[in-house]
């Protein structure tokens, strides 16, 4: 599946209070030429319904889930919904799947065995009355075993909170063909203190979560880097902040390291849809 080299990742495209404004913004983003619009799983809910709203508003841009939790969304329901959207709109949703953390598995009443659980979920998608083709699904993989599974049984992987060095390592594990679409947080602000404060406002919760913290440690960050919402070193490594040239430099670093596509998440100090920032970034749509 061709999703271009850049896209936008946005919780606001699910959460914003005015659905009409989401539709209007999505149509504008489609005209700007972004390869994909990514919506996160958040706490569950009707993620395919939210994807459908974006499909109605767009003509060319791929709609992707980045990512839905396998513990919250039964595979057969997702397969049936995915097939319905494909029939109705003539293009698939790229179904991004994640194993979240142990707490999510325990809330679902099961042990946390991410590799076997994800493998079983993919089996269910294959065996559904309306199977989801491997090329229309991908995996949020941050460890080597899940990355290898993603390369064998899906279009590829969509890792979260990673550096270009991680991207290079993941490409080595995947081989040359699979999709590698890292999430990249961005703050459109060239004031260092303000940009880092804005970034911490969103990312501090994730940095403190066990599975993301473990991934960051594997990437070479220390306990000091993980404390207090993230050190300047960590924030600068996983967040691209500054003007459009600085953000483009980070995108190109991922692409040079082997990424197929980079999903940009605008973090803003203001609420609502970050349409001003999206317009500023429009030259990066490709």
Automatic annotation (TrEMBL):
<protein>
    <submittedName>
        <fullName>TIGR03620 family F420-dependent LLM class oxidoreductase</fullName>
    </submittedName>
</protein>
<dbReference type="InterPro" id="IPR019922">
    <property type="entry name" value="Lucif-like_OxRdatse_MSMEG_4141"/>
</dbReference>
<dbReference type="InterPro" id="IPR036661">
    <property type="entry name" value="Luciferase-like_sf"/>
</dbReference>
<dbReference type="GO" id="GO:0016705">
    <property type="term" value="F:oxidoreductase activity, acting on paired donors, with incorporation or reduction of molecular oxygen"/>
</dbReference>
């Amino acid at each position: 599946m061709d999703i271009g080299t850049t896209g936008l990742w946005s919780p606001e495209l699910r959460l914003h209070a005015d659905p009409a404004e989401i539709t209007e913004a999505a149509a504008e983003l489609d005209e700007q030429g972004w390869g994909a619009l990514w919506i996160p799983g958040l706490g569950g809910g009707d993620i395919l319904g939210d994807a459908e709203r974006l499909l109605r508003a767009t003509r060319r841009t791929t709609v992707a889930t980045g990512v839905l939790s396998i513990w919250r969304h039964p595979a057969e329901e997702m397969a049936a919904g995915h097939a319905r959207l494909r029939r109705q709109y003539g293009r698939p949703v790229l179904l991004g799947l994640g194993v979240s953390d142990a707490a999510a598995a325990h809330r679902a009443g099961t042990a946390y065995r991410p590799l076997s659980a994800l493998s079983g979920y993919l089996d269910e998608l294959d065996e559904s009355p309306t199977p989801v083709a491997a090329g229309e699904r991908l995996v949020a993989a941050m460890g080597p075993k899940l990355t290898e599974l993603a390369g064998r049984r899906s279009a590829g992987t969509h890792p979260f909170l990673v550096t270009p060095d991680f991207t290079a390592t993941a490409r080595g594990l995947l081989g040359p063909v699979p999709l590698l679409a890292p999430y990249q947080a961005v703050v459109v602000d060239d004031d260092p203190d303000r940009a880092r404060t804005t970034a911490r406002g969103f990312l501090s919760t994730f940095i403190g979560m066990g599975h993301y913290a473990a991934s960051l440690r594997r990437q070479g960050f220390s306990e000091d880097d993980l404390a207090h919402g993230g050190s300047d070193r960590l924030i600068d490594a996983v967040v691209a902040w500054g003007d459009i040239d600085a953000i483009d430099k980070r995108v190109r670093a991922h692409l040079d390291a082997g990424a197929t596509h980079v999903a940009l998440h605008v973090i803003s100090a203001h609420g609502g849809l970050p349409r001003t920032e999206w317009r500023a970034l429009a030259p990066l749509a490709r």
